[in-house]
Amino acid sequence: MKQYIFDVDGTLTPSRGRMDYEFKSWFNTFCLTNNVYLVTGSDRDKTYEQIGETFNIVKRVYNCSGSEVWERNECIYRSPWKPEQELLDTLNKVLNENHYAGKTGNHIEVRTGLVNFSIVGRNATVDQRKIYVEWDNNVNDRKYIAEELSCQYSDYEFKIAGETGIDITPLGSTKAQILKDFDDNDEIYFYGDKCKPGGNDCEIYNAVTNGYEVDNWEHTWNLLKKL
Question: Is the domain of 138 the same as that of 101?
């Protein structure tokens, strides 16, 4: 059976933005005739803010990289994991020692089964995010941080997520963990924008036969139209 799994941020929506109205209408129709699942590092509230009623049209939404699972308005699973204080202290130390000048606040966000860490901060405006993205692309700030933290903590996964964040999960709790809910005979199609090593779509992308790395939601739409 064909199963379609999509990342959300950067795959179905602009980064931290709302789903395009025309694409949303088309995608909702696609969901009515196909088995569609979403997997994202964001929590339910942020995901619903981005995609609206699409949240309740797909068969299941895996929030927080699969650590919280929703079927419409019902949460059917929630991981009990909480980060150790030592890890949070280390993240604060990394933040204080980082030389980036445009920090905006709200840098460490504890979600279900996941911690999101952002040097620029989740209070950043669209323009402030763009400035950090350009800086990160030039100096590989997040890649360096993730690699350094991986050397310090062997029991955690540190993955580049979205445009400005790093997702931190217990070892083995990447987005690929959701595949245990599917059958071996399923023909799984996955679409994501962070599929290269170090990205939070990498493990699930490599674990399925039909994986597609996309540049943006327009790219996703164009691929789906060709099915």
Answer: yes
CATH of the domain at 17: 3.40.50.1000
d(CA 13, CA 11): 6
Give all strands of the β-sheet with 156-161 in edge-to-edge order: 108-111, 114-118, 165-170, 156-161
Question: What domain range includes position 33?
Answer: 2-78+173-225
Q: How many independent structural domains does the chain possess?
A: 2
Half-sphere exposure at residue 50, Cβ-oriented, CA atoms within 13 angstroms: 20
- Number of helical (H) and strand (E) elements in the chain, helices listed first: 7, 11
pTM, two decimals, is 0.85
169: which strand partners? Answer: 157
**Based on the domain organization, do 41 and 52 belong to the same domain?**
yes
Each residue of 11-55: pLDDT tens digit?
999 988 999 999 999 999 999 999 999 999 999 999 999 999 999
**Do the Cβ atoms of 146 and 166 come closer than 8 Å?**
yes
